[in-house]
Design goal:
Two copies of one chain form a homodimer. The first copy, chain A, has two domains: 7-17 and 71-114 and 238-459, Rossmann fold (3-Layer(aba) Sandwich), CATH 3.40.50.1100; 33-67 and 117-235, Rossmann fold. Chain A is built from 18 helices and 15 strands. Chain A has helices at 46-49, 55-62, 73-82, 91-97, 118-130, 144-156, 166-171, 173-181, 195-203, 211-223, 237-256, 272-286, 304-307, 350-357, 368-382, 388-407, 425-433, 443-450; strands at 9-10, 20-22, 68-70, 87-89, 102-107, 135-140, 159-165, 185-189, 228-230, 263-267, 293-299, 309-314, 323-328, 362-366, 412-417. In chain A, strands 1-4-5-15-10-11-14 form a seven-stranded mixed β-sheet, with helices on both faces. The radius of gyration of chain A is 21 Å and the shape is globular. The interface between A and B is large, with 42 and 42 residues.
Chain lengths: 460, 460
């Protein structure tokens, strides 16, 4: 097919927007091992999960049969408020790098939550409403996920309680205000609203809280109420499924213009953005239809893929969740003060982990100051001020484009730009002031983290 | 023409994007009176303005002959980075209001500066570059304009110095960081870098500064250098001209779908957004081709159109600029603490003023708490968290839609959504906490403001 002139930004029309999510698990030759009930070490059944999650999300979590899962019309209508997101041809960046490579990015930041998180928030809120629930609850650290869920809950008419890590709620009062504006109740965690919170407060009266504690409080709130469920913003298979709307839109837009990506790059925290971005393309690779180079990018300070172990581990540091087989640094691994809040997770999506283990993709770890150098360059040439998380992908995309300049190769590079950095200016300030430092965990740091892996037979 | 189904969002293709700005002055039956040199009270010549502004901007400022002015390709390429902006059909808001009215809004917030300001920043930076200048300078209060200009200066490779009102730079450190990330030098004003700043610092050592003082410093920087010029973000005719890209895109999109607006609503601070939004539609009204109801919305706390005088006044409170004939509250009118920073201006675009004086449009003043009530409703139904400034237009659009519900009229309403409120969360917090108050100036407040009008013959 003859290439047309590619516009700066490709927007699908409403007719062209995807009507189905892409369930990557259905085409994977090896499925990732099942979640385990930590008490029995038996695979989790739907009934095990029912007190915590919505029924439809559990169904999707366990579904590895159906390649396409219909996006309900109500969710598609919600998506129309902020989707399609643009697929952008980075003409200005290409020129600035003087590279023969063609660079594209899928920009998910043009919505009030500022990131891709809204794609799954919308779906999970809808399913909760459909099930007749009155309320949902979650935890949030940096606040992106809490904001996204607040928007979705307001739209579908659900009460939402967000447990926000206390120190974050104090450091980011304006994130909290966005959630409040959408009608969410934001409770600094630990709080006296749950037994878990009261216990922590008793033991550590002045604590600033932790994500692990906030998860425990939200889960407790869900399991102690018939009309409330817990929702999670990453890691789980159904979240990756919802995020496949990103990859689906990319694929439709690229097919329309006859663009064949040679590499697809995304940042990896919990893995849902990356898993969603690559989904239909990876399906093609598994079926032998392409040989795309997939690259997951993680911070050198929290290198779960590049230096972690493929093992069963808890999803939270409080050790309350089911066990997932994933690349992990150990649930008690304590990431250093790294500004990319959304990438500070000890584990990784089981789907992404299995793909990495089976060598369908590779992973790269990058250091923070190099990431911000790329972020600044990108902001100045492409206009968009990127989130620190997203800038990990920018860094590697730029490195690959510069490699093309050396070799003269005209590769087509696609990367995921997950969000904007408007609420991350403290990190930019550190970079602008020259006070930002890099941190790479020592082998001893990693050893301490691995020591927290559950003591169970790992080869199941 | 039969109406097609209107998508949630209408994006023009690159081919459809406007190639010309619409110079409203060329079709106005009465042109606004000329700027006056305050020393001689003679009309300002191009030579009077040359030490301050770029040559091409002066040419555009004085041009009332050419209806269409070509947008240079370099600026159109810049526009392609963040334009076209979407024209959104507010299906969700219509449903929430249960109104027969059809509501559209043109959303200018999907860029890093967060507002429409970038449309003129791009043009002014380009013309400075083309003239061979090395640097530009400006002042900023809340920071939106400074951010937009930082982005444009980075793109075109110009040095930029921003004088930021000192108290703002302390209260909004992150706004400052965005500008720094784009390479701008941000100087809290008053500063010791200018004679004007040093004088103020000597007289008032602890002052937090003012917009008037920051303007004086920036203008001084420009006029004392051959390679630097001053750029302004609103009020002036050439800024309104650049902003006409908003109205041009609206008109093209609406014509394409056969949509005829019955009313067009926009917020009015300096008037450039409103003037740009209405430009081609107002041209039609002047030519007798439509009878659109144009409504400018201003805060009740700073009511230059609804309670001001049509008089010659200084554009700045320091009384250093040429005199402009405009609706004004007097250049020393001190707006109360109103959170809509961008609407706290004593005067109004001379173009908008003349149109208002000649009754081609009307104006409405609204109170702050009512504005935030509308903002919250809009955020929860349409997803976008609006800037307080933009929310003035939302308030009146909602009021008009609710009036339609009473009367059963199916009016088509278009309003301008100029930007996002991510950097205005302190104001939202006040609203969420219930501590926000309204303020309407007393007649005595207005009298004090009018007393600062220059003592010259006003009927010229």
């Amino acid at each position: 097919m003859a290439k047309q002139t590619i516009p700066y930004k490709i927007y699908l029309s409403e007719d062209e927007m995807p009507k189905v999510w892409y369930n990557l698990k259905a085409v994977m030759n090896r499925k990732h091992p099942p979640f385990l009930n930590p008490a029995t070490l038996n695979p989790c059944s739907a009934d095990d999960l029912r007190p915590v999650f919505c029924d439809e999300c559990i169904e999707q979590e366990l579904n590895d049969r159906d390649l396409y899962i219909e996006i309900p019309e109500e969710i598609r209508n919600f998506y129309k408020m902020y989707r399609p997101s643009p697929l952008v041809r980075a003409y200005c960046l290409e020129k600035a790098l003087d590279t023969p490579a063609e660079i594209y990015y899928k920009f998910e930041g043009n919505n009030t939550s500022g990131s891709h998180k809204l794609n799954s928030a919308a779906a999970q809120a809808y399913y909760a409403k459909k099930q007749g629930l009155k309320s949902i609850t979650t935890e949030t650290g940096a606040g992106q996920w809490g904001t996204a869920l607040s928007m979705a809950a307001a739209y579908f008419g659900l009460d939402l309680t967000v447990y926000m890590v206390k120190v974050s709620s104090e450091q980011k009062p304006y994130r909290k205000e966005v959630m409040r504006t959408y009608g969410a109740k934001v409770i600094p965690s630990p709080s006296d609203t749950t037994a878990a919170g009261r216990k922590i407060l008793e033991e550590f009266p002045g604590t600033g809280g932790s994500l692990g504690c906030a998860i425990s409080e939200a889960v407790e709130r869900a399991v102690t109420s018939d009309s409330c469920r817990y929702v999670l913003g990453s890691v789980l298979d159904h979240v990756v499924l919802h995020q496949s709307v990103i990859g689906q839109e990319c694929k439709i837009a690229m097919d329309k213009y006859g663009i064949q990506p040679d590499m697809i790059i995304g940042c990896c925290g919990g893995g849902s953005n990356f898993g969603g971005l690559i989904a239909p393309f990876m399906g093609g690779k598994i079926a032998g239809k392409n040989n795309i180079d997939f690259i997951g990018v993680e911070p050198a300070s929290c290198p779960s893929l590049t230096r972690g172990k493929y093992a069963y581990d808890f999803c939270d540091s409080a050790k309350t969740t089911p066990l997932a087989k994933m690349y992990t640094l150990g649930c008690e691994f304590m990431p250093s003060a790294n500004h990319s809040g959304g990438l500070r997770y000890h584990g990784m999506s089981p789907i992404v982990s299995e793909l990495y283990h089976d060598k369908y993709m590779r992973a790269v770890a990058v250091e923070q100051t190099k990431v911000f150098e790329a972020a600044e360059k990108f902001a100045r040439t492409e206009g968009i001020l990127p989130a620190p998380e997203s800038s990990h992908a920018i860094r590697v995309a730029m490195d690959e484009a510069l490699r093309c300049k050396e070799t003269g190769e005209k590769k087509t590079i696609l990367f995921g730009l997950t969000g904007t950095g408007y609420f991350d200016m403290a990190a930019y300030k550190a970079y602008n002031d020259g006070t930002m430092t890099d941190y790479i965990p020592t082998d001893e740091d990693l050893r301490r983290g691995f020591a927290s892996l559950p003591d169970i037979p790992q080869n199941r």
